[in-house]
Predict the 3D structure of the following.
Amino acid sequence: MGVDEAFDDFQKTVDADRDQVTLARDRRDTFKKAFGAERGVTEVFGSGSLRRSTQLKPVHDVDLVIVYDQEDHPSWGQPGDSAEDALDYVRQRVNVLLGGTNGTVEQLVRLARWRNHAVKCFIDPPEDPEAFTVDTMPALRQSDGTLLIPEALNKQWVVADPEDLIRRVAEHQSDWQYFRPMVRVLKQWRHSVPVEGKIKSLVMEVLALECMPRAGSRSAALRAFFTAAAVRVNWDLADPAGHCGLIQPDLDRAGLRTALEAASETATRACEAAANGDTDDALRAWQEIFGSTFPAPEGKKASPWGTGPALITPRPVKDAPQG
């Protein structure tokens, strides 16, 4: 097996199940249909990793933005209770349109609760190991194209631009066909990194946007990424659109930098082995980085971080307006 074929096989272990992705998109489209016909709604669009095609398996949530006409909701966008009011309004409309027992469009949602930025809609039984939510966020479109979104905990509305990240990812993918797949690979890799706390998936996506080349083989691009990211992570990582602040203020940058430096050294060894015609050693080196699901011949060396898939744990439910 060659290096390219090994990456192809490894990608299959990373990518979300096709049926689950189809189901997630179908549910998103059901919400779009229901809210798109609502009075005062000017736009409904998907956001988040599913929209950007950078989602990791399993799919945890589907993000949806509902843009309202402020003339129909003149108090929205003002400090105070209007953030909570907007979220509660969307929660009520979810129940009317999509409630599990009385939905007028479809009987789909068993429970809807508003959180800081969005209404989290639970559809699957709580014991379902592949359950995921549809997170529905109200917003007001501003004259510069950005959005005002509610922040209930602080009783205010904040500026966000999820479409900026969608555009950036699409542009990078247009330049290099492996960008989105490699983002998913890196999101999985982060689970195996020994850091204090966890690394948010958006951290890896933004690092990839800044540090991943726009051409070349996957091997060369990953080597370049690990090398550049090990330097870039020394400085704060913020929302690329410049609105939502730091992506992860509590990020263990020292731990992530150490892991990136180690991966850079191993990736360099892998690329050198491949250039010298030693494909087996190249595959073993990539397996050291990505864990036992990366195909390699017997005789592999143990990964210094352990295998990524073995360390994946369920993600806590969070609001993340940047993605």
